[in-house]
Each structure stands twice: as structure tokens, then as C-alpha cells.
Write a structure and sequence with these properties.
mainly alpha
């Protein structure tokens, strides 16, 4: 008995050491991946700005001050003021927060729905013909055009915008997940689970779904960035978040009439948009290389 207990303890200790070693290797690879580190740093800055917006901005983004309208950047107004005298720093901070919230909500919602659709479409052939044809129909429309059409039907609001963008980006998530499922379900361990009498639900969610998570996470980061771009485009066109709610698209729309005389109204919201999207794209590219061994090998060959 003592020998068995000792052997079990040694096995448990060996597994623990292996887990710790894997974590250290992952941490070293993570820190050595420059796009992930750079993108993560930019995302962290955006997250801090979004969470601490009331303290960073220190003002009301809706407060009007007509006397100080179109003031250039100065000590009193670090980013200047807009055509209504509103502090642009406050507006940019709250606009970045709003755009980030929309991007996160869209990425989370589209990932959840796309995961379910992709799992069941890839596993069941008869569902594949139904679900993926619907996804193909949605995917056939350009993202901005489809979002504009749905927003015209539902009306401009933050909630409607999130719902429309989730519908727009579900097909891209579903296709990625489905491709991972098609590969995973042909593996030997899935056939073994079938032979042991495991239910379809158990096989899908416990054995196949983990294999699709890495691709889902990477695609989710790109959806996050694309959702922010589409939201900015819709708000710029007047079909997104309704004014005077600050978003990066609304700020760019407000500044387009004053781009020659008050260029700061366009420059600073544009820089914020670039930083957010660049951070998510860098993080997504680096994460793909980090999680996908085939991608890492092909990168070395190049």
C-alpha cells in the first residue's frame, strides 16, 4: 500500500511539474512574441482608459460651452474643443470607451452564437446544409451594407447596433469553428468515444469544442477590431450610435465639417481609433502565431 501511495504521489508531483513547466514555456513564448506584447500593451491602455474614463476625463462629455467653441489644444483644453465648446479630451475618452464596449459586446455575442452554429454544423451533416447556407447568405453581403440595412429597419440605438453587428459577424466565426470541427471529428479519439457509447452532446462539448477554442479566440480578436471599424463607419454616416452620445465615429462625423480650420476635431479621434484597432490586430496576429504551431513553423520557413 505504501509503495502504491508513494508511486501515486510521485505521479501527481510529476504532473504538477509538467504543468508548471508548460506554463513557463508559454510565458516565455508569450513575452518573446513582439506583436502580442505590443498589442497587449495597447489593449491594456485602452482598457484602463475605458474603465477609468470618469477620472481620466474629469468632466461631462455633454457639457456645452459656446464661448470656448473650436478652441485649439491648450493647457485648459489639452485636445481642444469641438463646435459646441465641449472638451474634446473628455469626448475622446468616453468615445473610446463606447466604441470598446460595442466591440467587446459584438465579439462576445458573435463568438458565442458562432461557436454553437459552427459546432453543430460541422458535426451533423444534415444541419450543415441548413445552417451554413444561412451563414453563406449573410456572408454574401458587405458588412457595412448589411448593417446599414438592418439599422434602417430597427432604428438607431446602441442596443440595435450591437444586435446588427453580431448578426453581421456570426458567419465568419461559424465558418472558422466549423472547419476546426470537421478536422477534429475525424480523429481516432472521437471514433473511440462513439464506440464507447458517448452521447453526441458530450462528444461535441467536451472533446471537440476545446479543439476549436484557439481558432475562436483568435478570430474573436479580429471581430473585435472589425466591429469597432464598422461601428465608426455607421456612426460617421449617421446610421450608428445616435448623437450626442460620444463614439469615435460620431466624433469623426462632427469634425468633418471643420477639418480645415479645426483639424484637431478629426486628428485625435482618428488616432484613438487607429490605436484601438492596431492593438487588437497586433494582438490577434501574435496570438495566432502563439496558439497555432503550423503558423509558427511556416513563419520560420519564410
Amino acid at each position: 500500500m505504501r509503495a502504491l501511495e508513494t508511486e501515486a504521489a510521485e505521479i501527481a508531483a510529476g504532473r504538477l511539474r509538467l504543468k508548471q513547466e508548460n506554463r513557463r514555456l508559454f510565458a516565455r513564448r508569450f513575452l518573446a512574441n513582439k506583436p502580442v506584447v505590443a498589442g497587449g500593451a495597447l489593449i491594456a491602455i485602452v482598457a484602463i482608459v475605458s474603465l477609468l474614463a470618469p477620472w481620466i476625463a474629469g468632466g461631462d462629455p455633454y457639457a456645452l460651452d459656446v464661448i470656448n467653441r473650436l478652441k485649439a489644444p491648450s493647457a485648459a483644453f489639452p485636445l481642444g474643443t469641438d463646435n459646441f465648446g465641449r472638451d474634446l479630451l473628455t469626448r475622446v475618452v468616453y468615445g473610446t470607451r463606447m466604441s470598446a464596449e460595442v466591440g467587446f459586446a459584438v465579439a462576445a455575442g458573435a463568438s458565442a452564437i458562432g461557436l454553437v452554429v459552427g459546432l453543430y454544423a460541422g458535426y451533423f451533416k444534415w444541419l450543415d446544409q441548413i445552417l451554413m447556407r444561412v451563414m453563406d447568405g449573410l456572408f454574401a453581403f458587405p458588412a457595412v451594407l448589411l448593417a446599414i440595412a438592418m439599422m434602417a429597419a430597427l432604428g438607431p440605438s446602441v442596443g440595435n447596433l450591437i444586435v446588427c453587428l453580431i448578426i453581421v459577424f456570426v458567419p465568419s466565426i461559424a465558418r472558422i469553428v466549423r472547419s476546426s470541427v470537421l478536422v477534429a471529428k475525424e480523429q481516432t479519439y472521437v471514433e473511440a468515444m462513439h464506440a464507447l457509447g458517448a452521447s453526441h452532446t458530450r462528444i461535441i462539448w467536451k472533446h471537440i469544442m476545446p479543439n476549436a477554442l484557439s481558432a475562436l479566440i483568435v478570430q474573436g480578436t479580429f471581430v473585435f477590431a472589425e466591429a469597432i471599424i464598422v461601428e465608426a463607419a455607421l456612426s460617421f454616416l449617421g446610421a450608428g450610435i445616435p448623437a450626442p452620445t460620444p463614439s469615435l465615429g460620431n466624433l469623426l462625423s462632427d469634425g468633418k465639417m471643420f477639418i480645415y480650420n479645426s483639424s484637431w476635431m478629426v486628428v485625435f479621434p482618428g488616432l484613438a481609433l487607429v490605436i484601438v484597432v492596431l492593438g487588437m490586430n497586433l494582438f490577434g496576429d501574435g496570438l495566432r502565431d502563439l496558439l497555432d504551431p503550423h503558423s509558427r513553423r511556416s513563419g520560420k520557413k519564410r
